[in-house]
Amino acid sequence: MAETHRRIIMTSRPKAEPTPDNFRLEEGPVPKAGAGEILVRTKYLSLDPYMRGRMSDAASYAAPVEVGGLMQGELVGEVVSSDNEKFKVGEHIAGHLGWQSHAVSNGKGLRKLDAGQPLAPSLGVLGMPGMTAYTGLLEIGQPKAGETVLVAAASGAVGQLVGQIAKLKGARAVGIAGGPEKCRYVVEELGFDACIDHKAPGMAEHLKEACPKGVDVYFENVGGPVFEAVFPLFNFFARMPVCGLISQYNMTELPAGPNKVPQLFRAVLTKRLTIRGFIVWDFAAREADFRRDMAAWVKSGEIKHREHIVDGLENAPSAFIGLLRGENFGKTVVRVAPDAK
Amino acid sequence: MAETHRRIIMTSRPKAEPTPDNFRLEEGPVPKAGAGEILVRTKYLSLDPYMRGRMSDAASYAAPVEVGGLMQGELVGEVVSSDNEKFKVGEHIAGHLGWQSHAVSNGKGLRKLDAGQPLAPSLGVLGMPGMTAYTGLLEIGQPKAGETVLVAAASGAVGQLVGQIAKLKGARAVGIAGGPEKCRYVVEELGFDACIDHKAPGMAEHLKEACPKGVDVYFENVGGPVFEAVFPLFNFFARMPVCGLISQYNMTELPAGPNKVPQLFRAVLTKRLTIRGFIVWDFAAREADFRRDMAAWVKSGEIKHREHIVDGLENAPSAFIGLLRGENFGKTVVRVAPDAK
């Protein structure tokens, strides 16, 4: 039976939280590779919070998805036909080829996977989220032995790695996650020293208990009330890599006052805080270091990882909506090819 | 006629803006140097915005002045008697010896001035404010040739130097100052490329015109509405050394909402801003570099400086209150010894 080309289109921009109406599944014939091109059959698609930004036309570091255009994202897939000497049929690649079951590419920007490299983790611990955790923590956070590293969204794609890398560097790792199951996983499986449930009452008090020496590095994925609970705990010279702000991606207006910017700046000044935003490609020069270190840590078992696997491209929109609500547990990937291992 | 020892005591903590009631002039006999000590006769006293923080008992990087205690601050003075072999009568020193006409010291923490070094500038361009400008701009701001450096309180002790150092590094220097006279001075005497009057209407629009390529470094001395006008102009990867927040030192409650922290963090993330607070002693390792470079720049005339000289220790409180209102024009120093040159 001939395969169908399936793709997810953004039909309209979300006003606040995305809804299923903002997406449409389109079907058609599988495209063919032209001169110098390859055809890729998608195995897994990565879903990441940053994609919410691409759905908006507010100015940002990347161009937005067009209304009526293909949703953007990275996938891993198999080369199924090739007119490009750099890629052989049967090889696996990772690339930003969008939410679709098949993709034609001239090969530019694709990353070839080693034979036998596990596919879903290539989009997580060994991919962009892994490098985000590695570079943001080491380049901006710069944890030292004995310091306390606090990370929000600690069971998510990036957070789960931040705490483990912090431990490898001799720091105390404390996570913040939603719900007791995630918190238990973060401590018992990943080896964080503590994890605070932001859905349970008393978060601020629990955070304080879990960070008896204060916070030296706060790896920010969340913003909002979680940040407010962390804020009083900053030590002198604390560093705050700003990686994501998932709590405010669906925000349509600023929260009620008072305006706390002066309070924030006062702490920046008196405690000499560093607050620095980044995206992973700002540290592209560290990619080789990341690939070497992370592959070794995964192989040795020093770094564990967990993927949240959703079956079927048609379920990508609902999985993405759930990801923004924190319903995932681990790095979210969509199994696009039913036979993907 | 015997000299009198005069000192300014903090009688109560200010609630908002300090008032003359918060201070008292005390007189008594001139103290005597004991074993290993020296007696210093004050020539000039430095007044600096950070002292407002010392009058408050809110947690900060330095212990507050005690109620009933001597106001803290740096002075330059002459050694008038010495039982310490490191200091000779007639030498001049700078040190944090407080708001007083005479001080006894064991010599610890004092900095000896070179013979003939001008005294008032030793508290400004060649002292703590000079090193603050030098280290904050070069270590955190890191201006590159062709970039735009914007500095608030541009005619003040630190701001006047920040823009001139930026020019020496090949950057465009834009100042913000209060009133046309200060702005004219900043451009015509100090050589900034532009200076915007924050007391005139249309500051945000004028800033935008003065920074046609946006802002790469914003040296923050002020906070509040000035920051809000600068905020939209940040370029990608802009750096913001937070040196002072004079607009909010007298603040008793946070301003009305909305809460703009999420808006700030969104810009930090998407523009990859760096916001970092500092005080000068964080960069103590750069002191020798500062002394070498700044002395050379002042000598060659590449760096100009202006002191705002107030006569009489008894006028220090009103001069300090005026400094917090922006009434000074240049580095504020009090001539404590009527004969000081």
TrEMBL record, chains A, B:
Gene Ontology MF annotations: oxidoreductase activity, acting on the CH-CH group of donors, NAD or NADP as acceptor
SMART domains named among the record's database cross-references: PKS_ER (SM00829)
Keywords annotated in UniProt: Oxidoreductase
Record-annotated membrane-spanning stretches: none
Pfam families (UniProt xref): ADH_N_2, ADH_zinc_N
EC nos: 1.3.1.-
Domain Enoyl reductase (ER) residues, every copy: 18-334
Region (Disordered): 1-29
Basic and acidic residues bias: start-end ranges: 14-29
UniProt entry tagged with the keyword Plastid: no
Name of the protein this chain belongs to: NADPH-dependent curcumin reductase
Enzyme class: oxidoreductase
